[in-house]
From TrEMBL:
The keyword Hydrolase applies. GO terms for molecular function: hydrolase activity. Gene3D superfamilies: DD-peptidase/beta-lactamase superfamily. Signal peptide: none annotated. Keywords: Hydrolase. Residues 85-369 form the Beta-lactamase-related domain. PANTHER family: BETA-LACTAMASE-RELATED (PTHR43283), BLL8153 PROTEIN (PTHR43283:SF14). This is Serine hydrolase. The keyword Hydrolase applies.
Length: 384
């Protein structure tokens, strides 16, 4: 008789401890690959056809070495020291290297953290291409009237996506008094509309478009914008226009602020490594599917940054990080989606390279023993 007993369900940690960086590895890793158990989630449905990621040929990736902060490292150093949980390296749309750690597999759905922000703003581009949002220069209150009279009265869609609203925000997820942690508590409470109400009451520190300040709260308003403009939940809009058309292998999932409520646009997507890679390749290709543009002309270049904000060059675009603006290594226009604890979709359009990185570092930020950008930049050179 065969044993049909299901494997034991992994134990996950608390969401507060996860964000604060207070989980030991044995609890952190199962939590990161089971995030859909932390909050109600909505599925992001794949389509009927899977597009295979062909394995490419070239120099053995395991032989690559690179320099970072004056030291020489190899692939094994980077994976071990940076607590890499999964990595996928693609060149010209083909897989050149794929590796998993900590029991993860090609079927594992891993947390995105703030990589979800870049996906959310991409959906704004899709909505503009479809005429559902007229322009990035539209006033936000045109779509979300409840923001009228508050700190977001003068904020445009563009300034929202650039995180240049001028509204007060502290992003430190380890600080229990920060706005970021306050929004997390509202998410834990699961009250519909509570996060929008909180954002509406924040104080204004500077006119819109004059000051850059990283804010996960801004991305929640991107989710509100998408729902208002499209009439669909962001997960359903993502599924219909991207996930089902890009040949994804698996359904993904997206956290909700309340049961059957709005998605947490700044975080909470869980997907497989290869499907993150397919999304990255779509962006690398300029937002085209089967020869048809899904994003407006020039959208990817503008979204990638860097951006001039009131005379200051900021290594940021529409919730994407500009690599060239950040470390000055390349003129290739490389950029990335990033999430705390070391999540990343690195894209170099000039070299047609996409790299997806999952990590399980001990703290949300500042715990990067070997610079991930140095690894990604060196990978581009190695694959040339």
């Amino acid at each position: 008789m065969s044993d049909t007993t299901a494997p034991p369900r992994e134990t996950v940690g608390s969401v507060r401890d996860a964000y604060a960086g207070r989980l030991f590895p044995g609890a952190q890793i199962p939590t990161f690959r089971n995030i859909d158990r932390l909050f109600p989630s909505r599925p992001i449905r794949r389509g009927d056809t899977v597009r295979p990621l062909v394995v490419g040929t070239g120099r053995a990736f395991k032989d690559m070495t690179f320099e970072s902060a004056g030291q020489r490292y190899d692939l094994f150093d980077w994976v071990s020291r940076n607590r890499i949980a999964g990595v996928l390296v693609m060149k010209d749309g083909q897989r050149r290297f794929e590796h998993y750690e900590f029991g993860n597999t090609a079927n594992t759905r891993w947390m995105s953290m703030s990589m979800a922000k870049s996906i959310s703003t991409t959906l704004v581009g899709v909505a503009i291409q479809q005429g559902l949002i007229a322009s990035v220069d539209d006033a936000l209150v045109q779509y979300i009237p409840s923001l009228a009279g508050g700190a977001y009265e003068d904020v445009t869609v563009r300034h929202l996506m650039l995180m240049a609203s001028g509204v007060q925000w502290n992003e430190d997820s380890t600080d229990e008094s920060s706005e970021r942690r306050q929004v997390l508590e509202l998410q834990i409470a699961q009250r519909p509309g509570a996060i929008l109400d909180y954002m509406s009451g924040l104080p204004k520190l500077a006119p819109s478009g004059t000051r850059w300040n990283y804010s996960t709260g801004e991305t929640h308003l991107v989710g509100e914008l998408l729902k208002a403009a499209t009439g669909q939940w962001p997960a359903d809009f993502l599924s219909e226009h991207l996930w089902s058309r890009l040949g994804m292998e698996s359904d993904a999932s997206w956290w909700l602020e309340s049961p059957d409520g709005l998605e947490i646009a700044g975080s909470g997507i869980a997907a497989t490594l290869r499907d993150y890679g397919r999304f990255g390749q779509f962006i690398c290709d300029g937002g085209v599917i089967d020869g048809r543009p899904v994003l407006p002309p020039g959208w990817v270049a503008e979204a990638a940054g860097p951006t001039d904000i009131h005379g200051e060059t900021v290594p940021y675009g529409y919730m994407w990080w500009s690599v060239a603006g950040g470390d000055g290594r390349y003129d290739d226009g490389a950029f990335s989606a990033r999430g705390i604890f070391g999540q990343r979709i690195f894209i170099n359009p000039a070299r047609n390279v996409v790299i997806v990185v999952w990590s399980a570092r001990s703290k949300p930020l500042g715990d990067e023993p070997i610079c991930d950008n140095d690894f990604c930049n060196a990978a581009c050179e190695w694959l040339a």
